[in-house]
Amino acid sequence: MTTNQTASHSLVLSRPLPAIYRWLGDKIFLTVAVTLGLSIIFLAGAMAWVLINDGSLAFREFGVIGFLTGTTWDPGVNFTFGALPFIFGTVVTSVVALALAFFPAVAVAIVIAEYAYGWLAKIIETLVHLIAAIPSVVVGIWGIFVFAPWMREKVYMPIFMWAAESQPSLLPILGNPIGYGMTTATIILALMIVPFTTALTRNAIRQVPKEQREAARALGATRWEVIRMAVLPYARGGILAGAILSLGRAVGETMAVAMLIGNKNTFPFSIMGPAATMPSVIINEFREAVGNLHLSSLMAIGLVLFVIAIVVNLIAAYITRKLAITGGQGI
Amino acid sequence: MKTLRQRNIRDYIMVSLLVLSTVLVLTPLIIIIGYVIINGLGAISIDFFTQELGSPARAMQGRPTGLVHSILGTLVVDTIGVILAIPIGVGAGIMLSEYPEHKLNPLLRVLNDTLNGMPAILKGLLAFAIIVRPMGTFSGLAGGVALAFVMIPIIARATESALLTIPWSIREAGLAIGLPRWRVVMSTIVPAARTGLITGFLIAFARAAGEAAPLMFTSFGNNYLPTHWTGMIFGPVDTLPQRLYSLAISPYAEWHTMGWAAGIVLLVFVVALFTGAQLLTRQKAL
After folding, report:
1. Angle between helical axes of B253-285 and B194-209 (0-180°, round to 10)
2. What is the distance between the alpha carbons of residues A217 and A223, in angstroms, rounded to a whole number?
3. Which of A193, B197, B203, B268 could form a disulfide with A246 if both were Cys (CB 3.0 to 4.6 A apart)?
């Protein structure tokens, strides 16, 4: 209808907008938004391409299986590169860190969501978010100068002395009690992923309908029974997805681990002794790497990290969608 | 069948365990912040904010050293990151929330979440490959790009959720009075959601400002102020998180002390951003 050229004008628009303006404006706006959105898709693609392209030299040289299972990392003399020590270090530290962090993190989420009402819940939640806000390097400097020396004096040395006296066969498993090593890094890692697990568990618990709780209360359940029988089963999908996303965090955590794990590139790793992870070896060696093969091997390790991160995220997304309880968004 | 008494005791035990876990989680936070404040305040001085670092000898001979170049570098690199990340993140967020019918939307959402979960160090490797290598030099620009990669997925997600909190009826009202779709978004939805948008920016910025991993091989680090300000953008430049790491793993006691000072400055900076975001969220709830 184009008969309103002289008729009453709207209060909002003194002049009717020409159709071309509306059509063109919408087209341009949509194009801009989609282009910006596409740049994210492009970014993900570029990351995959760069890592594959740059890592291909190492994979060609040692073979994919050979690179993934090789245990020698020698950038100095023989230029032989195998990623197994770092894959092992990453998997062990992150899985153990998740195991350490999981129950306390879920407990905090339950306290925030079900027990502490009002201001107390708000304070606890803010403090937990604050843990996530502390930069990784700040945790790292505390770890280097306070936590690792404390662990050496109070934990590792007594255990080491005890083992040296009565169980010498344990010594190779325990390793050097220098303070910087797998256990120290794992504990710090656990501390750092707690906020993510807590936030995601909190989100999952928030989705549980109030009626669930009320029904259980009406049947005479105690407070803990309400949580165990009505809340946790309902939220378990979200909690599981949250745990997996937290594992992804732990796998990618770089600086604090690089500062505390002691950076030993060769097997055997031991419980207390130094080790290395995939991010830590990239941080330590990428700046100094000169040989093409060395650089390419570090990029190839980056590719392994990339694949692990994708798999972890897709599994979490799948669980979230399958159980459709919470929006699996990271922080 | 358990008696009520047994069930109440069990209830009591579980409450105690939950409270114990909460204390266990929060104690390290207080310890870490306490150590950073005590050691950091002791290490901070006027020189810290006015002098550049120089060689290790400078600190060992007791000449004045500081991290002014790192602080300025952080501001430059973070600003570049924010300038790059906000348009892309907001654009993608608008696409996610306002055009749910678009075919690429599900793919974008999955990839955005995946990118968000990607280790920051990989974003550094990407920036190294696409900026540092073609330019032939480490640069503040590359560092800013790497930080933008960290911020973009967070901003996109935050924008999407902020825009989705605006009821759909507002959009319909706008369309009903004859506004084109883009005017509905830009004149009603985005202004209405601006608190949420700014909160998202602050959270993304706080996260990126503390990152050292993506900067190690993009902005690289520099013990001195560049002779000209453009050196901050086109040459290797220092940033606080990356300098903190270098100081902490250095063998010099004077540098360790300076590391604590860098720690408290970084912590205050990040916590201020974080608190700003929290306050805005609370304001919105009122």
Report:
1. 170
2. 8
3. A193
Interface membership of A138 toward B (CB under 8 Å): yes
Assess whether pLDDT exceeds 90 at residue A197.
yes
Strand partners, A81: A73
Residue whose C-alpha is closest to residue B254's, from B61, B5, B9, B4: B61
Tokens describing residue B23? 């204390």
What is the pTM for the complete model shown? 0.90
Give the residue among B68, B72, B163, B152 at the shortest CA–CA distance from B118.
B152
**CATH number for the domain harbouring residue B99:** 1.10.3720.10
Can you name the residues that pair with A275 across neighbouring β-strands? A262
* CA-based nearest residue in chain B for residue A121: B22
**What is the residue range of B27's domain?**
4-43
Claim to verify: residue B28 and residue B105 sit in the same structural domain: no
When scoring A102, A129, A255 by the number of chain B Cβ atoms within 10 A, the one with the most, hence best to mutate, is A255
| Same domain membership, residue B157 and residue B32 | no
Asked if residues A289 and B115 have their Cβ atoms less than 8 Å apart, the reply is no
Are B172 and B255 in the same domain? yes
Q: What angle do CA A221, A223, A226 make, to 5 degrees?
A: 60
Rounded Cα distance between B283 and B286, Å, is: 5
In DSSP terms, which residues pair with B237 in a beta bridge? B220
What's the whole-number mean pLDDT along residues A67-95? 89
Does A202 contact B at CB distance below 8 Å?
no
**Pseudo-torsion of CA A205, A206, A210, A213, nearest 10°?**
20
Q: Is A328 on the interface with B (CB under 8 A)?
A: yes
Domain residues of chain A, as ranges? Answer: 84-323
Homologous superfamily, domain A84-323: MetI-like (1.10.3720.10)
